[in-house]
Amino acid sequence: MTAPDRTEVLVFGFPQTGVPFEGGLVGALERAESGGAIRVIEVLFAGRDAESGELSVLSLEGGAGELAAALADFRLDRDRRREDTARALEGDTEDYGAALEAGEAVVAVRVEHTWARALGDAVGRSGGHSLGDRTRGDDVASLRLHALDAARRARVG
After folding, report:
1. Per-residue pLDDT reduced to its tens digit, 83-100
2. Is residue 42 a part of any domain in this protein?
3. Is residue 90 part of a domain?
4. What global pTM score does this model have?
5. What is the number of domains present in the chain?
6. Strand, coil or helix: what is 99?
């Protein structure tokens, strides 16, 4: 019996941050993924520049190892950042504008818990089966919706 895929969306907010993103988050994802406990499925970064209010959005799919170069280019290359933002937004800036103020950022990560599959396989080989799983990822909504909803709630709460 193979356990169903288990996914989770983690959302992190950075209110009025002046701290630059310099790879620490990507490094943590790479370490977690290389240990085999998780697999990074999708990452979303959205932020507004503190001075100009310019919106930057990056949406990527794939493992953490592929993210490092893409995020470095996004952070360091203004033209690339604008291209990535336009592609991620596809003309939909209203939701982001309502959720993020100048200087704020949000990072959302969808991960698969690969450890759960290994555990489920071991249980199945031993003749057992799952009696319940309340965190099954079948109903995990859009990463964008999770990120923007969390950003709005943080401002209200």
Report:
1. 998 888 876 666 776 788
2. yes
3. yes
4. 0.78
5. 1
6. helix
Residue 72 resides in a domain: yes
Q: Which residue has the higher pLDDT, 16 or 20?
A: 16
In a domain, 1, yes or no: no
Please give the Cα distance from 55 to 47 (Å, whole number).
6
User: How far apart are alpha carbons 49 and 146 in whole angstroms?
Assistant: 21
CA gyration radius, the chain: 18
| Domain ranges, residue 11 | 7-156
Q: Where are the beta strands (DSSP E) in the chain?
A: 7-14, 38-48, 55-61, 105-113
Cα separation of 87 and 97, whole Å?
16
CA distance 23 to 21: 6
Q: What is the pLDDT of residues 55-83, one digit of tens each?
A: 888 888 877 667 777 877 888 888 998 99
Q: Given this model, what pLDDT does residue 60 score? A: 86
- Say how far apart CA 3 and CA 54 lie, in whole Å: 43
Q: What pLDDT sits at residue 134?
A: 53
